[in-house]
Amino acid sequence: MKILISGGAGFIGSHLCDALIKEKHNVVVVDNLLLGSVDNIGHLIKNDMFIFYQEELLDYESINDIFCKEKFDIVFHLAANSDIAKSLDDPSVDFNNTFLTTYNLLNLMKKHDVKKIVFASTSAIYGDTNKKIVEDFGPLFPVSHYGAAKLSSEAFISSFCENYGMQAWITRFPNVVGERATHGVILDFIKKLRDNQTELVVLGNGEQYKPYLYVKDLVEAIIYVWKNSDEKINYFNIGVESRTKVKDIARMVIEEMGLESAIKYTGGSRGWVGDVPEFNYSLEKIHGLGWKAKNSSDDAVRLSIRKILGKE
Amino acid sequence: MKILISGGAGFIGSHLCDALIKEKHNVVVVDNLLLGSVDNIGHLIKNDMFIFYQEELLDYESINDIFCKEKFDIVFHLAANSDIAKSLDDPSVDFNNTFLTTYNLLNLMKKHDVKKIVFASTSAIYGDTNKKIVEDFGPLFPVSHYGAAKLSSEAFISSFCENYGMQAWITRFPNVVGERATHGVILDFIKKLRDNQTELVVLGNGEQYKPYLYVKDLVEAIIYVWKNSDEKINYFNIGVESRTKVKDIARMVIEEMGLESAIKYTGGSRGWVGDVPEFNYSLEKIHGLGWKAKNSSDDAVRLSIRKILGKE
User: Fold this and answer.
1) pTM for the full model?
2) What integer pLDDT is reported at residue A86 of this predicted model?
């Protein structure tokens, strides 16, 4: 099968490339290298099953040429802004990189008769709620522009599926950690501690309590959902049942770096506007389909710290 | 209060102008007259409380100039493509006219520190479901691009409210009928019968059973919601409890035109792809707020036919 992976040189995308090539698929990556890096896919460049285009997904004509040439069976669309906090002052970041990339791809799929899309969505579409978040949760009022752009993407995926006989697998991720990550709390803490070993300043009160999923578990889940569900629109929360507090992440990073730094909290229940302090993410649907994460949230955080520090 | 009404020369927008001017507000209309018409606002042009700009909402610089000059207190955003069936082959119609207009307005509101938006949303965001549609319904998988574009608009309204201290009143309409309508089943039937008085061809089996809300009832509801709710994001289904079958609309149109035409059904439960044959729209929330439609669905249809035919 010939697969387009948008954002395939990115954090999650590059792990997905590894997994799909291992399954003997032909993988074509389109990535603008804004957040992605050739370092992430360097080991694949000489593989016959792998093609890389450094191209801007918003450049309709260039991507059209790639669709003409490659004749894809399916699109895995992962390209997006992935730094939620960064776009809060500038909605155009997520409008362009998270939403418009999806809309352009859908139009190209329609034009080139590509009928299947696997989409990287997010728990951020659900907004800030204390209720149990099942897949059918409503209302959907996202807090961040990132969540808004992903919800908008889902909306048009839905209308394209309905009107043009397409089929979609929508996988909604929580926080994902692991090697090749470009941002996030673990990298932040490592960077801060490299700048100042005596004190680590943590945004919020450290009580933010979230599930962190290891990237290879996530990739396994994406592929599992695609292979094991066959509705017109298949939509699943992906995650891990356990959670980790920000203050425990801080502690683990300090420990793995061999430091004895003090931790200073700025206070407040949110690290930044748009941050969702705690949520209750139902995984019953994907567990019912037969998939569970191998690594707990704590294990995922610990493993990621060690991988990022080059200790594993 | 100085109010911008986008799409104020359109079907619903022009009725909203009438109502807000009656309440002594200063009304500024921006409309590209693609679907709107000066005929709808001709009676207001000489009113000191009314200003009309024929301008394209997608033209950021021109609309920016209007924001600079007029200093709005609030935006009522009604501009959109309103012909759902028309855009099915061309997603760009709703992407541009229904979604991008919203996104541009939100950015201009942010820039000019306008903090309040009343938004014309739609039952089409809920997609095709047999379940009772309460406001908190999920999942949201719209069938039409129109529904997708309105859901995308709601998504960014939400993230703008959260991040820039804005407040929103989201009113979700069902089918709306009345004088000044530009399309819809009543106008279709009248046009078809003017072309051929002997036979009326009806798409589907005529059993599509929907609520039709009279436009002046709708406008009253929009203003009522705005005045009587004060959350960050206020969201309400607007509608009428009773419903009318398409075959009864056909019968009423034939009757009011003084004809004895035969009715021929093309068959199938949907008039067109994206048409939602029947739905069960909960109005408990708006009834709880204290508003109910004055006209039943049948009365609304009958009244609209008579108004459009110039009989009232």
Assistant:
1) 0.94
2) 79
